[in-house]
Write a structure and sequence with these properties.
The chain has helices at residues 8-26, 34-41, 45-53, 67-77, 93-100, 137-144, 155-168, 194-202, and strands spanning 31-32, 59-60, 64-66, 84-89, 109-116, 125-126, 129-130, 132-133, 148-151, 172-175, 188-191. It is α/β, with parallel strands linked by helices. The protein has 2 domains: 3-77, Arc Repressor Mutant, subunit A, CATH 1.10.10; 84-197, Rossmann fold, CATH 3.40.50. The chain has a 6-stranded parallel beta sheet with strand order 8-5-4-9-10-11, with helices on both faces. A 3-stranded antiparallel beta sheet has the order 1-3-2. A two-stranded antiparallel ribbon has the order 6-7. The longest helix has 19 residues, at 8-26.
């Protein structure tokens, strides 16, 4: 499968399907249909079938999908059938929330380190993590072999930190700073800016 040939909008829907299927499994359900899954996620059955068929045939006409099988296949496709180590940069309010969030592990992610440039925060505990000095970040991330980072720093500092993360070998950045980042083509950035999503919703109000 060539990931570059799959539209990113489809990749973005797969975790939504996976979350719904995992909830169905938790309810004790064994099989589902594209119609039923569509009702759970608010996406048409035809779109779900089209999206899933990009990766092969996972169901049978008239019998639907095995939930356990489809969960396993989606986890495999999204590469969350393993645990990815994650570094958090920024020990402010957002960094605290991310570092303390308990929902990552069962989704395939584990926070392993948190960094900040504020010397007053360095050495303090956030949950089970001691805040580490950002000056050691490149060497430390390389040593840990971390490929994913969450960026929770002020906008003015974000690009400089992103450059350091790329230098450290990070290839995926979840950016909470309200700014677009310039990174090499082999680095994937996802931006999480609540104000943008709020502005998108207010159009409909």
């Amino acid at each position: 499968m060539n990931a570059k040939k799959i539209p990113d909008i489809i990749i973005g829907r797969l975790p939504v399907y996976l979350r719904a299927l995992q909830r169905m499994a938790d309810m004790g359900l064994k099989t589902t249909s594209s119609q039923e899954l569509g009702e759970h996620v608010g996406i048409s059955a035809a779109q779900i079938r089209k999206d899933i068929s990009q990766f092969g045939e996972f169901g049978k006409q008239g019998t639907g999908y095995s939930i356990e099988y489809l969960v396993n296949k989606l986890r495999e496709i999204l590469k969350v059938d393993r645990i990815w180590d994650v570094a958090v940069v920024g020990a402010g309010d957002m960094g605290h929330a991310v570092a303390n969030y308990q929902g990552f592990m069962n989704r395939g992610f584990r926070v392993v380190a948190i960094f900040d440039s504020d010397k007053e925060k360095v050495g303090h505990l956030i949950g089970e993590f001691m805040v580490e000095d950002a000056e050691t970040m490149i060497e430390r991330i390389r040593g840990l072999g971390v490929r994913i980072a969450m960026l929770a720093v002020p906008a003015a500092a974000a690009q400089g930190v992103a450059d350091q993360l790329v230098q450290a070998g990070v290839r995926a950045i979840l950016n909470y700073a309200p700014i677009s980042l310039n990174v090499p083509g082999n680095v994937k950035v996802q931006c999480i800016d609540p104000s943008i999503h709020l502005q998108r919703m207010t159009f409909y109000l």
